[in-house]
């Protein structure tokens, strides 16, 4: 195992002391895999978790399932989502399943309490337990099920690594990221589908290709564009009100597409710059991965300083609402971000 120590990216400051530190690694690359930024160990394989849901949704378009079932932007967006479990999310997942002739009993993602406090409180008041449809991954699973049904495959076991839908997804990840997946080191995600370890450098390249269409066949480029446009059209379906990914999609579309995952992973693409990025926080802290993304976006996209002003300020308040600290980009992250003079977009397909 590589023992390279990753730099501190984010610090928690309280009073005049740095109270906590979050180390991690960041890769920014173009569609050919040329690294614009490599901060920390970007070649160590990591599990991308939910950060690649939009990539996992490509078979839903490429198989013809989305057209056959007449899926709209909300239904495509929720297929790419880590949603909050609010009424709007649950309804979209049910519509997606219903169009494929299925119901939520087919979902293999397991149940957890909704991310949304409002949705959780609603269940508690009704003395109900959460169901699989409240799982933040239920939209992704619904998309996989719809793909299986359209292809005439059994929906049973669609989440298993040897199911044709998962085999197709693995092939797409390999092709997009330009790397052979090591099936011997595949893990199982929190929602029971396979998760393959990939270096951040390869993930950054894959997202650059996904967001620009470069190095892709016309049909795959169009499928990727369609998914991104759906997420831009229905950003609340991708995460939820007030959540980081939704704020970015609402305020920076079509300049930035981002998606976070568990254990401090975040990926995305800046289509007009032709760049994809991927990062991992060593201790898995979501607060640190979102703060890192905010710093990078603010450097590369001037508009982001306004859209993400609250995230960049990083105020930490106590239970009385008093400001007691801040979430700050480390000096090393700030220096690396400052070195990113706005790059010229690589030659190839024009910004879409």
Structure description:
The protein is an alpha+beta fold. It has a single domain, classed as Beta-lactamase (3-Layer(aba) Sandwich), CATH 3.40.710. It is 41% helix and 18% strand. The chain is globular.
**Radius of gyration from the alpha-carbon trace, in angstroms:** 20 Å
Helix content, binned percent: 40-55%
Cα separation of the termini: 40 Å
- Reported by name, the CATH topology is Beta-lactamase
Shape: globular
Approximate strand percentage:
15-25%
Q: Count of helices?
A: 16
For the largest beta-sheet, the strand count, sense and barrel status come to:
8 strands, antiparallel
Oligomer: single chain
| Structure class | alpha+beta
CATH architecture: 3-Layer(aba) Sandwich
Number of E strands: 12
Strand and helix map with partners:
Elements: E1 8-14, E2 17-30, E3 35-39, E4 45-46, H1 53-56, H2 58-62, H3 65-68, H4 73-79, H5 87-99, H6 117-125, H7 138-150, H8 164-177, E5 187-188, E6 194-195, E7 198-199, H9 200-212, H10 218-233, H11 235-238, H12 244-252, E8 257-261, E9 265-270, E10 275-281, H13 286-300, H14 304-307, H15 309-313, E11 315-317, E12 323-329, H16 331-338
Antiparallel strand pairs: 1-2, 1-12, 2-3, 2-10, 4-7, 5-6, 8-9, 9-10, 11-12
């Amino acid at each position: 195992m590589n023992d390279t120590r990753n730099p501190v990216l984010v610090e928690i400051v309280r009073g005049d002391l740095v109270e906590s530190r979050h180390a991690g690694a960041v890769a920014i690359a173009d569609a050919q895999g040329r690294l614009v930024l490599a901060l920390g160990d970007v070649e160590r394989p990591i599990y991308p978790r939910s950060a690649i849901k939009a990539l996992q949704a490509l078979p839903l378009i490429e198989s013809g399932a989305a057209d056959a079932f007449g899926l709209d932007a909300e239904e495509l967006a929720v297929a790419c989502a880590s949603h909050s479990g609010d009424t709007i999310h649950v309804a979209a997942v049910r519509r997606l399943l219903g169009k494929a002739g299925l119901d939520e009993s087919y979902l293999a993602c397991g149940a957890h309490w909704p991310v949304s406090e409002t949705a959780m409180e609603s269940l508690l008041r009704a003395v109900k337990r959460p169901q699989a449809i409240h799982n933040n991954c239920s939209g992704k699973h619904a998309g996989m099920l719809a793909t299986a049904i359209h292809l005439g495959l059994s929906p049973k076991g669609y989440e298993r690594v040897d199911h044709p839908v998962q085999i197709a997804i693995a092939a797409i990840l390999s092709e997009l990221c330009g790397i052979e997946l090591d099936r011997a080191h595949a893990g199982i995600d929190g929602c029971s589908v396979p998760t393959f370890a990939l270096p951040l450098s390869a993930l950054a390249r894959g997202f650059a290709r996904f967001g620009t269409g470069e190095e892709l066949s016309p049909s795959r480029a169009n499928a990727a564009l369609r998914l991104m446009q759906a997420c831009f059209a229905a950003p609340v379906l991708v995460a939820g009100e007030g959540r980081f990914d939704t704020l970015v999609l609402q305020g920076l579309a079509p300049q930035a597409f981002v998606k976070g995952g568990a254990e401090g992973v975040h990926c995305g693409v800046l289509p007009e710059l032709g760049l994809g990025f991927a990062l991992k926080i060593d201790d898995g802290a979501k607060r640190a991965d979102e703060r890192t993304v905010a710093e990078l976006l603010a450097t590369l996209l001037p508009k982001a300083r306004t859209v993400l002003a609250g995230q960049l300020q990083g105020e930490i308040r106590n239970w009385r609402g008093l400001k007691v600290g801040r979430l700050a980009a480390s000096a090393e992250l700030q220096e690396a971000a400052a070195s990113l003079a706005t790059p010229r977009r690589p030659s190839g397909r024009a910004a879409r």
